[in-house]
Amino acid sequence: MIDLEKVQRLNVQYGDLLVVPEDTEPQGMELLSEALQYLMPGCKVIIIRGPVQQLDVGAMNKLGWYRA
Prior knowledge:
By secondary structure, the chain is an alpha+beta fold. The chain has one domain (12-62). It is built from 2 helices and 2 strands; from the N terminus they run E-H-E-H. The chain has helices at residues 26-39, 57-62; strands at 17-20, 46-49. It has a two-stranded parallel sheet. Strand 1, helix 1 and strand 2 (46-49) form a beta-alpha-beta unit. The termini are far apart.
């Protein structure tokens, strides 16, 4: 059952990054992708499981992810 109070309107655009909750099943992500293709043929997006955060160069270096 869909909790209608948690439904949000999205204006998905070509090239968007969509972050779904960490506990989202792969099948749910596939269904989302199929629904987007049905509604917006040819629209390409990236769907990943969250949480996602943007790190600055200093934070990446501390984690051993050195940037050239």
